[in-house]
Each structure stands twice: as structure tokens, then as C-alpha cells.
Automatic annotation (TrEMBL):
Pfam families, alphabetized: MFS_1 (PF07690)
Transmembrane segments: 131-152, 158-188, 200-220, 226-247, 313-338, 350-372, 404-424, 430-451, 463-490, 496-515
GO MF term list: transmembrane transporter activity
Database matches in InterPro entries: MFS (IPR011701), MFS_dom (IPR020846), MFS_trans_sf (IPR036259)
Membrane topology, record value: Multi-pass membrane protein
Coiled-coil stretches noted in the UniProt entry, renumbered to this chain: none
The protein, known as: MFS general substrate transporter
GO cellular component, one term: membrane
Source organism of this protein record: Neolentinus lepideus HHB14362 ss-1
Length: 529
């Protein structure tokens, strides 16, 4: 539900407002802020997830090599099971290796959609904390299953590898980031939400930046490919204990019960209102059953005063899916471009990715919060503050135009940086373009804040889940669309992929200008004190 309730849903609105105001969830008894509590978790989670990534390529390549020789030439496998580098370099093995990672990419795309839907559903029924603990447990199983595959053989090795793929699909860092965002938006005020989500994303990126450097160094130091997996599992175990002992439940049982009751009542009302044949009723029941609960948030609601429909959440979804379609393949296209056209060595591409990550961290944790709280806020104050929750009389003084302007500016910087990179011919100017690219990282977190502001506090998790599912579709399609463009033109017009990228993200950012302050969620006048 976006913005205003339906004309016939007064009782539902009253109940939601009553529950929203009946209980204030305290972040922590010691007064520690929510972002301070959860930041170490998202940092370590991303670090532990990406830490073994460079080693994973080697382990999976070894599996692909054994699999190919087992199926095609078992007599060439040495008695000790070890295969040489030369044996694993033949075309057949490389095709098997590529096929495995293609399967992983497809599984990641489908798994993220399922992961967002499941996380949103269970978080609304059982709370944010249990979902967070389950995701950490699955992530721990991700690495341990790959380790187990190295001690197994035959079908057991294949089973462990499939388990590794499935666990990795459901426990990707973006899915965990979604769970962390739900925790944050439950606890912070509307005025602090954009800055807090931005900082949380920044700490997650920082975890990834550390892993780029540390993972390979650990494997080289100990001369054992499994050490990074044991270290990763230990990190997951430590944050599991941290979450269990220190992180509070942000979505109380009272709110969960009320949301469940309202969903059931609304479904019954909708079923009763369906007129026509049994076929029509069966079709309605099928849609209600099959469509994931978060996606139902995209249905526009109607302003009971003006009669106009509220399309704000839909506009945000269109913006997010197209920016993700262009940008999800952006880093890959940048590395491929620099490698193919400017002969970058692996160490140089590592420096590029680390530089980009560090600038992202600086922008997300310092620049965006400073813009929101200090620099731009005085120019985006509302003429009349609005109440966004009866929880402590919470009000919002800042116009949503602030978030819109930051998001549009961020994506414009992103587009310009990619296009400039395509025409830079020296290492120095290329690094400068990459630094500029880092300053265009604020669009994603800011758009999530706009999404959350659209719906009632009880339904913010569903709204976030809906746009993340849409975003994952853009991520899934990005290598297909942008990768095809790059592959087709890299020898003739390699800059074309950056021009297409820029055109898509700028056009998608323009959609946010359709977002209006009047369409955000706010309490009705008759609920004000």
C-alpha cells in the first residue's frame, strides 16, 4: 500500500496506526544507535562472503577438471587423484568450468528473487532477528560445503558442490543487506533514514574492499586453499553469536500479529468482492496465492480525497530495475575494457577495484550523510512538517525532493564517469575517472529511502522486499544485455557500452521527478493530537 489508504479500508488504517504508535522499540538498553550495532555485522558478513572468492575459482576449476576426466578419460587420472595444471588447461575442462559458473550465475539470479521474497515473508511473520540468524547460518554452510567437497569423491562431491551453489544463491550479500535495511528502517526516524541506509551500505562496501586484498594474501601465506574458508566460517560464527546476544528484535510480536491479521482481513474482503463465475474466483485465488506478498505492494492505492491513484512505489521500481540493468554489469565492463584495450594486469585491476570501493565507502559513510543532514537540508525544508508515525509524535520536516535530487545527481555523475573512462588513455586519467565514478554511488541507497517513505511503517519491509526482487531481475538481465553489447563492439567501438549505460541510468533517474511529496505516507489529520 502506498501513501493513502483505500476508501473502504478505514478500519485497517486505524488498526495499523494504533499498533504503530502503541510500542516504541528501543535500539538497545545502553543507548547505542542502530547503525552502530548493525554496522560490524554487515561489514564482517560481506568480508567473510567475498574473502574466499579468489580461492574459489581454483577449487571449482579443480572440480571441473576431475569431473571432465571422470566422464571422458578416467584412465588419465593419477592414482593419487591429483591432476596437473597442463591437464586442467585443455578446452574441454575450460568449457566445463565455464558451464559451472554459468549455472552459478543463473542460480544466483533466481536465488536472489526467492531469497528476497522469503526473507520479507518470514521477517514479517517471525521478526527481523531470526531471518538474520538464518541467513548467517546459510552463509556459513556455503563455505563449509565447498570445503567438504574437497574431502569427498564421486557423487558426494557433486552433492556438496550443489549445496554450495544453493547456499550461495540464498545468502548473497545483497539479500543480507536487505535484512539489515529492514532492521534499520524499523528503528530510525524518517529524518535519519537516508543517511543511515547510506552509511550501512558504506560499511558493507568496506568489507568487500578489505576482502579484495586479504583473501589472496592469506592463501599465498599459508599455501593452503582451505584456510580462507575456515577463517570465513569463524567470522560467520562470531557474528551469529553477536547478533544472537546483542542485536534486538526491531519488529515486535504485536506488530507482526497485527500485520498478519490485516493481511488476512484484506484477503477475505477481496475474495468476497470478486463477482462472476467460479473461473473468475479461481483466477483471483490463484493470483493471490502465487504472487509473492511483497509484490502486492506495487498495486497503486487511491487518495480518498482526490480520487487519484498513487503510483509512487511503481515509479521507484521502474527507476531501480533500469538503473540496476545498466549498472550491475558496470564494474565487469570496466575491468574488461581496461584489460582488453589498455592491457591492465590482474594486480592493476585489483588496485582499480580497491580504489573504487574506498571512494564508495568515503562517499556513502561521510558525503551522503553530510549532504542530507547539513548542507542540502536547509534548502529542502517543508513549509509544513508532516507526521509520519504516531510513535513519539514522529514528524518529517524535509521534503522528499532532497532524496530525489541526490539520487539524480549520483546517477548523472555515474554516467559521466563511465563515459569519460572510455576516452581516457593514461593510467592517471583513468584513475581520476574511477574516483569520480565512486562519487556517483549514492543513487541506490537513497532510492531505497524513497521506497520506505511511501508506505506505512508496518509495511516497509514488504516494500523493500518488492523493490529488491525487481532489482534482482535487473541484475539477472544486466550481463545478458550489457554483456552482449560489450562483446559485440569491444573491437570496433568499445566505448558504446558506456554510452548505453549512461543513457539508461540518466533516463531512469528522470523517472524520480514523478515522485511527489504528497504521495508519501503520512498520518491523516484526524489522528493528530
Amino acid at each position: 500500500m502506498s501513501g493513502y489508504p483505500e476508501p473502504d479500508s478505514d478500519s485497517e488504517t486505524q488498526a495499523l496506526l494504533r499498533v504503530a504508535g502503541s510500542e516504541t522499540v528501543k535500539p538497545y538498553s545502553s543507548g547505542i544507535s542502530p547503525v552502530t550495532l548493525i554496522s560490524p555485522v554487515v561489514l564482517v558478513y560481506r568480508l567473510a562472503t567475498i574473502l574466499p572468492s579468489t580461492t574459489t575459482f581454483f577449487v571449482v576449476n579443480q572440480f571441473a577438471c576431475r569431473l571432465w576426466y571422470t566422464l571422458n578419460d578416467p584412465g588419465s587420472i593419477p592414482s593419487d587423484g591429483g591432476l596437473s595444471t597442463e591437464q586442467c588447461s585443455i578446452p574441454g575442462v575450460q568449457k566445463t568450468f565455464a558451464a559451472i559458473f554459468t549455472a552459478i550465475s543463473i542460480s544466483d539470479g533466481l536465488g536472489s528473487v526467492i531469497g528476497y521474497s522469503a526473507a520479507s515473508l518470514f521477517a514479517s511473520r517471525y521478526g527481523r532477528k531470526p531471518v538474520t540468524l538464518v541467513l548467517i547460518t546459510i552463509a556459513m554452510g556455503h563455505g563449509l560445503s565447498l570445503v567438504s567437497s574437497t574431502f569427498a569423491s564421486g557423487w558426494f562431491e557433486l552433492i556438496f558442490l550443489c549445496t554450495w551453489i544453493l547456499c550461495g544463491s540464498f545468502a548473497q550479500p545483497p539479500v543480507f543487506g536487505f535484512a539489515a535495511n529492514m532492521f534499520i528502517v524499523d528503528l530510525v526516524s524518517a529524518e535519519e533514514r537516508t543517511a543511515t541506509i547510506s552509511k550501512l551500505n558504506g560499511w558493507s562496501v568496506f568489507g568487500g574492499a578489505i576482502s579484495f586484498t586479504v583473501g589472496g594474501a592469506i592463501t599465498t601465506r599459508f599455501h593452503n586453499v582451505l584456510v580462507v574458508y575456515y577463517l570465513s566460517a569463524a567470522m560467520f560464527a562470531s557474528i551469529w553469536v553477536y547478533v544472537f546476544l546483542l542485536i534486538p528484535e526491531s519488529f515486535s510480536k504485536e506488530k507482526r500479529d497485527e500485520l498478519r491479521r490485516q493481511r488476512k482481513a484484506k484477503a477475505q474482503e477481496a475474495e468476497v468482492s470478486v463477482a462472476g463465475s467460479r473461473l473468475d474466483k479461481a483466477k483471483h485465488y490463484l493470483i493471490r496465492t502465487v504472487v509473492p506478498e511483497p509484490l502486492k505492494e506495487f498495486k497503486p492505492t487511491r487518495n480518498p480525497v482526490t480520487g487519484k491513484r498513487n503510483w509512487r512505489l511503481f515509479y521507484c521500481a521502474v527507476h531501480i530495475i533500469f538503473t540496476q540493468l545498466a549498472d550491475a554489469y558496470g564494474a565487469v565492463s570496466m575491468v574488461l575494457f581496461l584489460t582488453a584495450k589498455h592491457n591492465y594486469e590482474p594486480s592493476e585491476t585489483g588496485y582499480v577495484l580497491t580504489t573504487l570501493s574506498l571512494v564508495d565507502v568515503f562517499c556513502l559513510t561521510l558525503i551522503i550523510p553530510l549532504l542530507v543532514r547539513r548542507i542540502l537540508r536547509p534548502y529542502h525544508l517543508r513549509a509544513k512538517p508532516i507526521r509520519t508515525s504516531s510513535r513519539g509524535g514522529e514528524i518529517s520536516e524535509t521534503s522528499d525532493r532532497l532524496d530525489v535530487h541526490i539520487a539524480v545527481a549520483s546517477w548523472t555523475i555515474n554516467a559521466i564517469a563511465y563515459i569519460l573512462l572510455g576516452y581516457m588513455n593514461t593510467r592517471i586519467t583513468q584513475i581520476l575517472a574511477i574516483i569520480l565514478l565512486g562519487f556517483g554511488c549514492g543513487g541506490g541507497p537513497v532510492a531505497r529511502s524513497l521506497v520506505v517513505a511511501t508506505v506505512h511503517p508496518l509495511k516497509q519491509g514488504d516494500a523493500l522486499g518488492a523493490v529488491e526482487m525487481v532489482s534482482s531481475l535487473g541484475t539477472f538481465l544486466s550481463p545478458i544485455v550489457m554483456g552482449t553489447i560489450l562483446t559485440s563492439t569491444i573491437s570496433t567501438f568499445p566505448q558504446l557500452v558506456f554510452w548505453v549505460h549512461g543513457a539508461i541510468v540518466v533516463a531512469a533517474s528522470m523517472v524520480l521527478f514523478l515522485v511527489r511529496d504528497s504521495d508519501r505516507y503520512q498520518e491523516e489529520d484526524d489522528h493528530e493530537d
